[in-house]
C-alpha cells in the first residue's frame, strides 16, 4: 500500500532480523552488540523488525531502554522483565481477572469444600543482580518460551558506579540461562561500547559479538522520492543527491524525512539549498541556541573550532579562541576539561581516527558557518 504521507513511509528489514536471530540460535549464551550512531533506526528495528520475527519463531522479546533510568540501568532491565512476567502470568481482559481470582468454596455434588490459597512464589531476592537472574527464570517458566532480551543503549551499564558488578552479573546470567535467554545490545557510543565489551580484563571482554548496524539503503530513499513526485507531479528528487544528503546528515532516516518534508513544502528539489534553509530555520536555531546556552564563551568557540575540523588542542586553535575578550585564558588543560564535559552532555563524540567531532552533523554545519560574535551572543 502506497503511503498517504511522508510520515507513513517505513522500511522493514525482516531479512536482517532473521539473520540476527539465527546468529543467536547458533551461539547460545553469546549476545549480539549492534553499534550505530543515535537516530539511525536501531530502536525502530528492534521494535518493528526483530521483535515480530522473534515472536513468529516462538521467542518472547523483552525491550528495555537503559536511558530510562541512567543512574540505575539494571533497575530498568528488571522493570521490563517484571512487566513481561506480569503479562505472562495475568491474562488480559475480564476473563483473565476472573481466572486469577482466588476461589475459597467449590460445590461438589451438593456438598461444598474449602480450597486454600495457591502456594505463593518466594519473594524476589533483594539484590538487583539476583533479581535479574530470578526474573529471567520465572519469565521462561511462565511463558514456556526463550526470552529475547533487547537492551537499548547498553553503554549505560558501563557508565554507573559499580558497573563491573552489574556487567559481571549480566554475563553470568546470559551464560547460566543460555538455554532460556538470548540478548541483543545496541549502543550509540562506539568508544563506550569498546571500553565495555572489548577491553582486556573487563567482565564482558570478547563475550558479545560486535556488529556494525547497517544504515537504511535505497529502498527508503526511493520511497521518499516516489512520494515527493506524487505530491509534486512533474518534479523529482535525484536519487544520487538523496544518497549524498543521507550520508551528509549521518544516515538518520527521520532527519532525512523531515528535510524532504521541508523541501516538499516549497516544491524544492535542490538539496544544498534545502539543507541550508533547514539549518537556518528559526525552529532549528532556537534548539541549537538552547544547547549552547549552558556553555561558556570558551566552550562555544571550541565547539565551533571542532565543527570546522580544527584540532581542539592545537596551539593555533587555542590562540584564535583566546583572541575573543570573553574567553579568558585558553589552555590545553582547559580544552581537555571542556571536551570531556561536552562529551558527557552528548554534544561531541570521539572521531573514528581520534580527536573529537560534533554528534549532530547539521548542528556541526550550523556551528561551522556561524560568526563568533553570534555564538557568543547566543
Provide the descriptors you would attach to this structure in a database record.
single chain, 378 residues, alpha/beta, Arc Repressor Mutant, subunit A, 3 domains, two-stranded antiparallel ribbon
Task: Please give a quick description of this structure.
This protein has 378 residues and is α/β, with parallel strands linked by helices. The chain has 17 helices and 9 strands.
Report on this model:
It is a single chain. The strands form 3 sheets. A 5-stranded parallel beta sheet has the order 2-5-6-1-7, sandwiched between helices. A two-stranded antiparallel sheet has the order 3-4. The protein has a two-stranded antiparallel sheet with strand order 8-9. The chain has 3 domains: 6-93 and 123-212, Rossmann fold; 218-279; 284-376, Arc Repressor Mutant, subunit A, CATH 1.10.10. It is built from 17 helices and 9 strands. Helix 8 (218-231) runs parallel beside helix 10. It is α/β, with parallel strands linked by helices and 378 residues long. The chain has helices at 14-26, 42-56, 73-89, 93-100, 128-143, 163-176, 190-197, 218-231, 239-248, 253-264, 271-279, 282-292, 297-307, 315-322, 332-344, 361-369, 372-376, and strands at residues 32-35, 59-65, 105-108, 111-114, 146-152, 181-187, 209-212, 348-350, 356-358.
